[in-house]
Amino acid sequence: MDTPLVGLVMGSDSDWPLVSKAHETLDALGVAHEVRVLSAHRTPEEAHEYSASAEKRGLKVILAAAGGAAHLAGVMAASTILPVIGIPVPGGALGGLEALLATVQMPSGVPVATVALSSSGPANAAILAAEIVALGDSALRERLRERRRAMREKVLAADRKLRDSIS
Fold first, then answer.
1. Percent of the chain having pLDDT more than 70?
2. What is the pLDDT of residues 99-147, one digit of tens each?
3. Distances (CA, A) of 20 to 10, 15, 119
4. Nearest-CA neighbor of 19 among 55, 60, 67?
5. Mean pLDDT of all residues in 49-54
6. Which DSSP helix (H) or strand (E) runs through 161?
7. Top-level CATH class of 6-136?
8. Buried b / exposed e across 126-141, counting CB within 10 Å, b at 16+?
């Protein structure tokens, strides 16, 4: 098994239906990754240890998904210099707004990249992580280029189909 390059962490296993989209995207791109459930507040020691040891274990990027104001991404970022990408999970009393705000409002010097509060967020987080890893992996860069080409072709085919149907 390949050494994981991306860590995918979620605050609760109830986040898996959404977060699994990041796992599927990383799989499709051939990016070795690991998946964990760690809570910023219920397992703070384990969350800290995970983040603090990530670089030594070979990770290049951490994706951290959490709902509410749990702020798992901030906890991860506090213990590593690796890039951390926060995935705010919709739900709760404010529909996920608290998760989004907790993720984007980091103090100066401890950044967390943040993706959309939507079903596209986890896949975009995985693609961004792959782009970071691809800085040192030309084969992965080509897989990402091919993905973009396929997306382009799909849109152009839809455009042709629509134009043909209305002419």
1. 99
2. 999 999 999 999 999 999 999 999 999 999 999 999 999 999 999 999 9
3. 10, 8, 11
4. 67
5. 98
6. helix 138-166
7. alpha beta
8. bbbbbebbbeebeebe
3-class DSSP state for residue 9?
strand
Where exactly are the structural domains of the chain? 6-136, 138-167
**pTM across the whole model:** 0.94
Distance CA 118, CA 120 (A): 5
Cβ neighbours of 39 (radius 10 Å): 17
DSSP string, 21-73: HHHHHHHHHT--EEEEE--TTTSHHHHHHHHHHTTTTT--EEEEEE-TT--HH
Taking every pair of Cα atoms in the chain, the longest distance, rounded to a whole number of angstroms, is 63
Long-range contacts of 95-103 (CB under 8 A, 24+ apart): 96/67, 98/68, 98/69, 99/66, 99/67, 99/68, 99/69, 99/70, 101/69, 102/66, 102/68, 102/69, 102/70, 102/71, 102/74, 103/66, 103/71, 103/73, 103/74
Q: 134, 96, 142, 129: which is closest to 21 by C-alpha? A: 129
Q: How far apart are CA 40 and CA 10, in angstroms?
A: 10
Q: Tokens 């396929």 appear where? A: 150
